[in-house]
Amino acid sequence: MNDPAPLSSLPAAFATACESMEAVVFRSELTVRKIPSPTGVAPHSVALAADVLASPDSSPHSTQDSIHGAGRFILLYDPEEPASWGGAFRVVCFAQAPLENEIALDPFLADVTWSWLVDALDSRGALYKNASGTATRTLSTGFGELADQGDAAQIELRASWSPLEVDMSHQIQAWGELLCMLAGLPPSGEAVSLAAHRRERG
In this record, what's one Pfam family (predicted)? Predict the structure, then answer.
């Protein structure tokens, strides 16, 4: 995953996980890029950001999220296997998307959002345990100079879980599918690989 350190210098399990993430195939509606990973959380980590239906002219290094939805995927690795993780790996992910105001008022929205994550993981055959997270809906109204924006709503999911496999392809594919589901896209689409995007960028 273009980690600052060469893969050959990383622990074997983490290097294998990074290689499996590199080979993941994403839907064409997703623009995925590597971002700086957090420090001080685990000995090793790698992070990705994704935007849904981002403009073709958007810079791959842009820090502005797409208005259609965006997310982050962080893989943490600690060979000491923290007790709270139940293993050496931990995934932390974030996903958000705008909503129609009527949908945001649905009392079951948070439950449905969490079930979409679980369904995405299960449908990809991802092996994991110790899943946790929060689903938050936000309703906002503009005033003053922002009054023209009217009312707006969005759903935000923050989740983490412990993968039970070194191959992370199923885990990250599920995250990508969740982003598209939150954005209201159908469950199919042309796929392109992150590796191909990197080669195109040189």
Answer: DUF3000
